[in-house]
Amino acid sequence: MPSLKAQLAATFFVLLLAPIVALSVFSLDRAVNIMVANLGESADLMSRQVFEEMRIALAQSKNADAETAFKNDASIRMLLRSIQAFGPAIVYARIIAPDGHIVASANGEMEGELQPQYPPFSELTTRVAHWWPISMVPLLAGQANYNVARAVLSDGKLFQTISIGVTTDLIRGQLQRQVAITIVLMIAVSMVAMLSVFLLGNRLIRQLDAITVGVERLTAGQTDVELAFPQEDELNALAQKFNQLSRQLRVDRSRWDANRTPLFDVVKSLNEAVMLLDEEGAILFANDTARALLGLTTQGAIEGLSLSALLDSSHPLLAMV
């Protein structure tokens, strides 16, 4: 069975640590959801701006094919550069043809090549929508890019796709900071719990030790034992009950001493062996004749001892008692 100090330590640790962990997980979950939502809204707004520039470029293209118009349009190129330059979580901004090759990008990188495959942004939003904190663990491991795609249709068919790439670097940094703060708080709480248990445990143990010593003194026959705890102390009520017991024992013993003197004088004058036992078989009195017959003359004070502890288990007196 764990010691009292160990139980107090575990209780303090749980009571102090549980709210911190719960609040940390809740705030972490909320912060991640807000950041992901803001990231998605920003990428969606940027894709809308690109769509408007594409619409203007087609209107001014004078029957040129769409890919040439988009690639040569200075406004589209400038917008794609601005999106990538000033968006802290944007890794690329591109216009993709229906066959998957890149028509226009911020600085002309990878134009004419196939668009690399990135997981859709909806996968990230689905992951963080789960309340279970373990679903956020992948966000802590390495850089992860997600693709926000807006399909541009013409006559009900796919015409072009606006592709905005976002990274979870900022979210990962926030997660790492929050986890570090939580760990520091847990360490601080552990130290507070141990210090609290040390102070409170020592105080409580000292009080319990005082009560234990008092009980041992009562058991040994001392009836002048009383405990003194401060009035506001939690164990003061127990100390008062102990003092009442001690006073009652003192009164009972005084009455017994007053009443037994004439009786014992009579008993001592008898030549027969006389022994007085209580209901538990403990010796209250034995005259010299009884002690001599039982071979207990060398035992010293035998009052309060059990008769069965002084005699052999086969002694006929034990069967009689």
- First-to-last CA distance: 39 Å
> For the CA atoms, what is the radius of gyration?
45 Å
Biggest sheet descriptor:
4 strands, antiparallel
- Mean pLDDT over the full residue set: 77
Strand residues, percent: 5-15%
User: Structural class from helices and strands?
Assistant: alpha+beta
The strand line-up of the biggest sheet is 2-1-4-3
Counted beta strands: 6
What sort of overall outline do the alpha carbons produce when their principal axes are compared?
rod-shaped
Tags for this model:
321 residues, alpha+beta, 6 strands, rod-shaped, two-stranded antiparallel sheet, 9 helices
Give a brief description.
The chain has 321 residues and is an alpha+beta fold. It has helices spanning 4-59, 66-72, 74-86, 121-129, 169-219, 236-269, 288-293, 307-310, 316-320, and strands at 90-96, 102-105, 145-154, 157-167, 275-277, 283-286.
